[in-house]
Backbone:
């Protein structure tokens, strides 16, 4: 009996890994292609476009691309992007969780109205609001600084707030009630009960917030008026000109490099998504 | 214990908690939003002062703009196909990667990869590499002896499908949210049902799915909004043109080109207003239906 | 838990720090400020930045700031800036958009600066300047002369045993050559782009007309059949595989110079603007031989289908606080030999004859070919039509591609119907300029 079970389990494991890897190949293909292409010498980029393996690998595109424009190298773009992304991410995750608790747990007048307003901010395309927003920020003298990009994140963002609301609503109410009976006020309940229980949601939010602010280009395009303030995504888009010469090798190389921090953050944070949360101890 | 609605203390606390958002909304979001709503009733080329024109933008949109209805059709098609497929796929993969087997870390990174590539300029080239006349897809088809000379991206029948595939393939964000949702389901629920003799399939329908419904609601609404306002993929892959034959001219893309390339910000704003109303209606419907299928642990 | 609280506190402390971070602190005191913006790719950015730095070296009292973007982003950005009244002093402009921007009063009349010689046109002929005139006044200074061309792959022609066509070839000549090349070499006789809007314009140019009338209030032609005949020819060539079809153009060729059929040796002729030859040559790699020739015309002895067009301009914002300095900067681009040695005619053939002679010996073969081509066109061209009228981008975006080009190429409507739609819809949009 035991033998049969074990071999069955082994078979399942093999089946599982095979399936996951086969689908996985389709998933990782773009990264491999991008990485491979970034190593191809100029002659191979178009002639051997569909191959992911360079015949004569070269690092020249990395060196060329890193130089950036004039005397402004990619190290400056990295620094700018890192400042924006880290601050935005931290600010967004904590402010959104805080706000979400209010929407998820407390009853107050006009709650539904404000919640609808919040969702509406997602439904009007940002592109169309660009000009009024630009005029507004220019009246505040925020142009040519990171402020228009960073400051709004301190006020939460609908996507994250709504997401965390849904997670908080999944947390049994008995937990906060127990805390309140123990004499916690609502702020203490939020910090000591809800926030820890929402770690998976907050981690997820952090992964997205980082990735989105890392790749965001419309706001930097409009508000950063000096190459020294440019972000990576902006710099990458300045490489190409449809009617002129474009160094595609450099674009591939720098695109590939720009993915690494996003990946690193993902790998660093996702390990917090591994353990299921037991409410057992808290209930006690 | 039933909590009394709108107790003063609770109301104050509630407003204190949402205060940061409220400040941001009133201070930073409201002005551009209201401005857009007003501009929809004007003719505004951005370079000179807006001129009030009443409803004429809307009348023109509905009666005298052949491209408008094509963009509506393309967007609905795109949203109604890509959203369900993407959600189901994301849930499937999240279930598959929700375990403590060896390699799970690695697999998750693998499956998140397409989403990271995102809106990079390189995507435009890569998509041509895969769907070009002598691209990857055609060479695979040729291996199976199938017809392999379709220029997928340039064929009005298939171009939109390449974009659908692109977004489905970038399923990382709903997947991650599902995964986080799965993590939040208390283990003891499974433990006690195992003791009752429930198998994995039954557990999925009895515990996982109901417990996941709040997250599913979130993903559904967000994906729907993203689907209706889809922009980046078409913008990058078709170079902002919505080609061929306007089959990929998504609503948000069309609105953007009207506003910024044809200098018709007023018309673009009017389009945005219609979009807002349509998406709000859909969202409202989903919310209205949610008590029937969403299960909240806390209520 | 405590960590989280600490983080929150740290954040609130961080907030003002970050909020001020990246703010403009460099505004040097007592210096004249000037800002410049342009579009382009890495190559142009590098050169232009060097040029600006050299300008500051030569004018130590000037603090120049600059920014750049890719083509599409550039217009989103500058339009937004214009709406906010915050355009930089010097702005790169495009022939197809200039009229629109001038019409809205955004660009400064440069006439006074030409009169007082801040911008010196001693070595420049009027025809090279004319493109920047709107209703007689100068609003933009040409940064390089440009003309459309057909680039011929000399090796392919030799292999097929076909002589290079004379510069006054006609569309009939073109068709038979393209078919012969295709038959003999098995590659496309001609690359993509034959149905671009430029051919709509130049078919009529070689009939002594233009797509738009002079005032920009109507189309500039009466006989639709000229363009219908042309479209029918191209559609037939597409069907016969002599030129790429529209779906291939979209899926493969139309993304960048590097993907063009000529670069990939998949087409023996290709349509370009003359200032793209350097990019073409460098993308195609060593050992290729290219010859640039005029566009085919309607009749052998009729008017040329070519005109000399400014590749791009520099304009000054109407709100510039220091227009004199901005004008001096434009003059520096036009007349300073040192800076032109840095720029290497990347924006097109310089308009000043002294500069052209001054940099000729440092040009590569591809660039020399484009210089020579511009000389040839200068001797055989049609007069420069007026800049594209207000509404041109509307016609391009909302009529040309979606209602004319695509439906015709995918066989939804016939060329005759397509041209009729194009004409009628263009008339409707242009009528607003009356």
Residues:
């Amino acid at each position: 009996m035991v033998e049969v079970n074990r071999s069955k389990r082994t078979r399942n494991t093999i089946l599982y890994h095979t399936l996951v890897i086969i689908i996985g190949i389709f998933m990782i293909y773009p990264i491999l292609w991008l990485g491979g292409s970034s190593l191809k010498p100029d002659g191979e980029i178009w002639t051997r476009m569909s191959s992911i393996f360079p015949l004569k690998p070269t690092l020249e595109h990395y060196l060329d691309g890193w130089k950036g424009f004039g005397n402004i190298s990619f190290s400056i773009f990295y620094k700018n992007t890192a400042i924006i992304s880290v601050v935005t991410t931290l600010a967004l995750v904590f402010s959104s969780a805080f706000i979400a608790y209010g929407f998820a747990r407390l009853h107050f007048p006009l709650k539904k109205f404000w919640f609808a307003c919040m969702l509406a901010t997602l439904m009007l395309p940002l592109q169309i609001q660009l000009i009024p927003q630009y005029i507004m920020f220019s009246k505040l003298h925020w142009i040519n600084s990171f402020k228009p990009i960073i400051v709004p994140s301190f006020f939460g963002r609908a996507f994250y707030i709504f997401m965390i609301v849904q997670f908080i609503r999944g947390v049994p109410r008995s937990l906060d009630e127990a805390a309140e009976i123990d004499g916690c006020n609502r702020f203490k309940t939020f910090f000591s009960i809800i926030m820890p229980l929402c770690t998976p949601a907050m981690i997820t939010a952090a992964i997205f917030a980082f990735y989105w602010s890392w790749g965001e280009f419309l706001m930097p395009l409009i508000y950063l008026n000096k190459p020294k303030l440019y972000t990576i995504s902006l710099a990458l888009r300045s490489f190409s000109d449809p009617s002129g010469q474009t160094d595609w090798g450099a674009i591939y190389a720098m695109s590939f490099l720009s993915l690494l921090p996003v990946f690193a953050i993902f790998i660093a944070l996702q390990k917090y998504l591994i353990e299921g949360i037991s409410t057992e101890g808290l209930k006690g | 214990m039933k909590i009394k609605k709108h107790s003063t203390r609770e109301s104050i606390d509630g407003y204190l908690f949402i205060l940061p958002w409220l400040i941001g909304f009133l201070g930073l979001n409201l002005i551009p939003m209201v401005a857009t709503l007003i501009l929809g009733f004007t003719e505004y080329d951005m370079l000179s002062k807006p001129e009030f024109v009443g409803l004429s933008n809307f009348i023109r949109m509905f009666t005298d703009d052949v491209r408008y209805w094509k963009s509506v059709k393309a967007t609905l098609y795109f949203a109604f196909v890509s959203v369900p497929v993407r959600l189901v796929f994301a849930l499937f993969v999240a279930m598959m990667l929700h375990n403590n087997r060896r390699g799970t870390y690695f697999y998750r990174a693998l499956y998140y990869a397409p989403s990271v590539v995102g809106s990079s300029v390189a995507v435009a080239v890569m998509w041509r590499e895969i769907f070009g006349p002598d691209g990857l897809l055609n060479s695979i088809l040729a291996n199976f002896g199938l017809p392999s000379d379709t220029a997928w991206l340039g064929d009005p029948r298939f171009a939109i499908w390449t974009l659908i595939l692109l977004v489905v393939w970038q399923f990382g964000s709903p997947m991650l949210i599902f995964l986080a949702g799965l993590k939040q389901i208390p283990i003891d629920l499974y433990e006690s049902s195992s003791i009752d003799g429930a198998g994995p399939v039954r557990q999925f329908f009895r515990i996982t799915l109901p417990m996941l419904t709040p997250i599913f609601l979130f993903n559904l609404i967000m994906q729907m909004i993203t689907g209706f306002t889809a922009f980046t993929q078409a913008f990058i892959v078709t170079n902002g043109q919505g080609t061929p034959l306007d089959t990929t001219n998504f609503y948000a893309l069309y609105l953007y080109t009207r506003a910024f390339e044809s200098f018709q910000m007023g018309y673009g704003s009017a389009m945005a207003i219609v979009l807002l109303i349509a998406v709000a209606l859909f969202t409202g419907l989903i919310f209205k239906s949610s008590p029937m299928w969403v299960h909240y642990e806390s209520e | 838990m405590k960590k989280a609280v600490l983080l929150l506190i740290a954040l609130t402390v961080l907030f003002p720090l970050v909020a001020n971070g990246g703010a403009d602190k460099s505004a040097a005191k007592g210096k004249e400020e000037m800002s410049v913006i342009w579009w382009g790719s890495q190559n142009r950015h590098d050169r232009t930045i060097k040029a600006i730095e050299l300008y500051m070296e030569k004018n130590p009292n000037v603090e120049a700031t600059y920014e750049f973007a890719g083509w599409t982003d550039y217009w989103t950005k500058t339009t937004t800036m214009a709406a906010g009244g915050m355009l930089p002093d010097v702005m790169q402009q495009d022939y197809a958009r200039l009229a629109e921007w001038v019409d809205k009063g955004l660009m400064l009349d440069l006439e006074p600066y030409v009169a007082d010689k801040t911008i010196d046109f001693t070595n420049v002929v009027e025809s090279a300047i004319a493109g920047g005139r709107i209703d007689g006044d100068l609003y933009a200074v040409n940064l390089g002369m440009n003309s459309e061309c057909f680039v011929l792959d000399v090796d392919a022609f030799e292999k097929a045993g076909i002589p290079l066509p004379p510069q006054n070839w006609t569309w009939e000549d073109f068709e038979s050559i393209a078919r012969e090349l295709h038959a003999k070499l098995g590659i496309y006789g001609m690359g993509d782009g034959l149905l671009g809007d430029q051919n709509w314009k130049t078919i009529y140019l070689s009939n002594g007309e233009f797509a738009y009338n002079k005032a920009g209030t109507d189309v500039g032609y009466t006989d639709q059949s000229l363009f219908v005949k042309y479209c029918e020819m191209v559609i037939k060539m597409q069907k016969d595989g002599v030129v790429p079809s529209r779906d291939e153009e979209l899926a493969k060729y139309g993304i960048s110079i590097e993907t063009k059929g000529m670069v990939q040796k998949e087409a023996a002729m290709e349509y370009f603007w003359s200032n793209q030859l350097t990019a073409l040559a460098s993308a195609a790699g060593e050992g290729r031989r290219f010859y640039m020739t005029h566009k085919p015309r309607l009749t052998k002895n009729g008017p040329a289908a070519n005109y000399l067009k400014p590749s791009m301009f520099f304009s000054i914002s109407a709100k510039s606080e220091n227009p004199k300095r901005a004008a001096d900067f434009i003059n520096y681009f036009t007349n300073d030999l040192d800076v032109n040695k840095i720029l290497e005619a990347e924006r097109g053939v310089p308009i000043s004859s002294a500069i052209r002679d001054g940099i000729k010996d440092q040009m590569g073969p591809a660039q020399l070919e484009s210089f020579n081509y511009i000389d040839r066109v200068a001797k055989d061209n049609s007069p420069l039509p007026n800049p594209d009228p207000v509404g041109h981008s509307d016609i391009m975006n909302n009529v040309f591609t979606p209602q004319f080009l695509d439906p015709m190429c995918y066989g939804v409507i016939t060329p005759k119907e397509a041209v009729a739609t194009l004409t009628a819809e263009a008339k409707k949009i242009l009528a607003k300029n009356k």
Summary: Chain C touches chain B at residues 72, 75-76, 79-80, 82-83, 100-101, 104-106, 245-252, 254-255, 259, 393-394, 397-398, 401-403, 406-407, 410, 412 (CB under 8 Å). The first helix of chain C runs from residue 2 to 20.
